[in-house]
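User: Regulatory protein TetR. Structure?
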Amino acid sequence: MPTSRPPEPAAAVRPRGRRPAGEDTRGAIAAAAREEFAEKGYEAASVRSVARRAGVDPALVRHYFGDKAALFAAGVIPRGVDPAQSAADLVAGGLDGLGERLLRTVLGVWDSDGGVTFRAVFSGFGSGEVPSQALMGYVGREVFSQVARVLPGPDPALRVSLVASHVVGVLVTRHVLRVEPVASLDADRLAALVGPVVQRYLDGPLPGGA
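Assistant: Predicted structure:
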């Protein structure tokens, strides 16, 4: 007689209820959101499904993060990464070579899981303006505002916008479109190649007077 296969185990869901003292509830929700958006994309994931995965009440998710778009913005940042601290460390190194250091840091963050988290981020971009605006607003506040303060001359907002457009383009090419050889190029070499272009946006002359 053919033997029947055992059923596939269900995805682990943490039991709801009060968390042990000292447990980082906000961090646990962010981690659950990261997993949920990576697996399902922005449209299919919900505050309720994130709460279920984290083992908390949906009201607690809203307490910490507000709406789904804000949860997406905070949740898709890879585990263990503090964007504000990363930006402070980059800026502390001075303007010279900042472009390459920025690329090296960004690639180190988003390459760490093979691009899975970045693809979750990108799925949110395709779901309308709300998630993309929430994420870019978050990154702008935490990262680019610090970079803009150390830039010389006029138009720091234009400069950091150009940097953001180039860096996001590299990540899309590497992790979403997976265009070779960029997709498999060593991160250090890619940072060395692209860094000087980003550096020009940061401190070089810009056509039109900046």
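The first helix runs from residue 25 to 44. The mean pLDDT is 83.
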